[in-house]
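Today's session is about reading a structure prediction critically. Students often jump straight to the picture, but the first step is always the sequence itself: look for stretches that repeat, for charged clusters, for runs of hydrophobic residues. Only then move on to the predicted structure, which in these notes is written as discrete structure tokens rather than atom positions. Here is the chain we will use throughout the hour.
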Amino acid sequence: MINRVSTGNPQADEILCGGFPSNSINIIMGEPGTGKSIFAQQLVFKNAGDDRPILYLTTLSEPLAKMVAYVQRFAFVDETKMGTSVVYEDIGAQLVEAGIRAILNCVQEAIQASAPKIIVIDSFKALHDLSPSTTELRHVLYELTGMLTAYQTTVFLVGEYTDEDARCLPEFAVADGILQFMRNPLSTRDERFVRVLKLRGSAYLEGLHAFRIGAEGLEIFPRLVSFSIPENYTILEERTPSGIDGLDAMMGGGLWRGSTTLLAGPAGAGKTTMSLQFILEGVRRGEPCLYANFQENPMQLARCLRSLGADVEDLRRRGLHLLYTSPVELQVDRIMVPLFQNIQQTGIRRVVIDAVGDLVSSATDARRLHDYLYALVQHFTIQGVTSFMTLGTADGAPDSSLGSEQLASICDNIIFLATHVKEQTRRSLLVVKSRGSRHDLATHEVEIAEKGVRVL
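Below is the predicted structure for this chain, in token form.
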């Protein structure tokens, strides 16, 4: 069994299948401002204890005093450990004066004096600017690697490396692990991602994992992956009442437990009202429910519930969980991962995502969104979570430009809602698809009354 060094972040440890292997040499790479130094220092303070110290060496990046002052703003920092369990040392002046071979003396003296269990060198990329030749740097790297390998310490080389650097610089050949931090600037926000490029002798979760930087340090959202279908998988032969008057009869007696239903229709057709009725029925039956909402803010949602004769605080006490995110701040990873964690931790039985169109329009990678939704629906199916997703359309039929054809293939049931405006507004409902059920094929008129949507 491989001994591991925790990153100080449970989600990062999950991505690394427990953390970095002990006594390994690792590279933490990324452009300036991507969060790599914060990640390295969060790891440092997580592993700081009373046994062997941790050494953080700075070269020619930002001044040491500035770095320490900045990192002290984060909650993970324990100032009582500074200078004892966590030792910062600026070796930039020695490197300028004596050349890059000075790093060999600095590391050797540190090993002999304090036997550090972790050594961080930030920035290691700066050594390339000081080296007289690539050959000289290779010789220094060879000696440094031999020294570190012979001694039981875990090493992290932090640097402003690019993808091209990873293909040609010598330190990447000797590294046991490589972690890359990236930032994608958008007009209203920045998307940040981390991925593992290499982890020698260990499994890890591939792909891009979103994160954000907050007062606690890095908050990471591991990419959601599909369940492996068990060999003894059994179908849940159970119908779930929708709580919508007249709909269950159209659906063959209700919704299959674990099924996902797409409600598509224009504004005012009744999608949100039907979703709330579905949730209220679950609460009435004692089922924990989750309503993820990107449309109405909490006050508007409370008003909608009140119009159906319900009180938000009472519903919370009885098992309703609310997850609201402004459509301006939407990022698929920041929604899907907390949503999935909420479902796992609270035993949720019913979920509404209102509206999935906001996720589609905010996604910078349509394939990534599709994969997330597919994985989420697979989790719903296997765990017996029945769900509604709403999708706004112009005329009652999903717009193919939104990628909703793929979305429709994921869902078990598809219901089109429409509005017809002549002398007065009339509404209709059509069940287009109901997987595993003999459903009503006719278009039915619906009305919205005091108790919600009713199929006529």
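Discussion point for the tutorial: The two ends are 64 Å apart (CA to CA).
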